[in-house]
Amino acid sequence: MSGNFLTIPGDDPIQRRSRSSSLTDLISAFDNKAQAHTELQKITAFSGSFDKNLKPTFSKDEYGKPIPGSKTEYRGAEAQARVCTEMKELCEIINEYGKSPCKSLLPPELKDATKVISFGELIHIINLHLIYNILFQIYTVISDKLVGILLRTRKHQLTFFEGEVLFQKRDDDVPVFLMQPIGDIRAYCDNKALQARRSVSPMPN
Predict the structure, then answer these.
(1) What is the DSSP letter of 109?
(2) Which residue range or ranges hold the Costars domain (predicted)?
(3) pLDDT tens digit string along 118-156?
(4) How many beta carbons lie within 10 A of that of residue 116, not counting itself?
């Protein structure tokens, strides 16, 4: 038998060099990633390789933010998108179960309110002289973080209520106002969720 027994019949030398180059690039990329991970562990306080003599440096824009392209960044974006969805669902419930407020009884800053619902159980809202359904009883399909989501919706000017935070029983008679048409709220929340997901790369491996 003639020829080198290690040579694949019909194997082109150019193809062999191409495969060798691809393998070298793959090994180099793996080594670079492994080295970057090792360096990261040295400045990560919770890792077994933490070196207290090394101090990480961050720019003002990087401080307090996850590493771009990391799973932490991805999970944060997904959590933000879920919050936007919960905000929309909460506003949907207020829109469905709330009542149209009496505009003549509202102060100027609430003239744009479209719906209102009480925070508590069958409480008479003094300013509007109406009785509404309890928000705590209706709010069962979203999550158990009602107050947190309510605060988020107020921050985004989707709802309004008085007080820093609401507590069941104590604030049962506090009205919660929906401040925009539900169609605008749907579009706003969907857009915010889409922006959150687009702000990061696809889920890292």
Answers:
(1) G
(2) 81-179
(3) 886 333 332 333 333 445 555 444 445 778 888 999 999
(4) 25
| DSSP-assigned letters across all residues of 29-87 | HHHHHHHHHHHHHHT-TTSTT--TT------TTTTTSPPTTSHHHHHHHHHHHHHHHHH
What's the CA gap between 69 and 59, in Å, rounded?
17
49 and 92 assigned to the same domain: no
Both 123 and 173 in one domain: the answer is yes
Same domain, 169 and 93: yes
Q: Residue 9 and residue 125: Cα distance in Å, rounded? A: 88
C-alpha–C-alpha distance, residues 93 and 85, integer Å: 13
pTM equals 0.61
Separation between Cα atoms, residue 10 and residue 183, nearest integer Å:
66
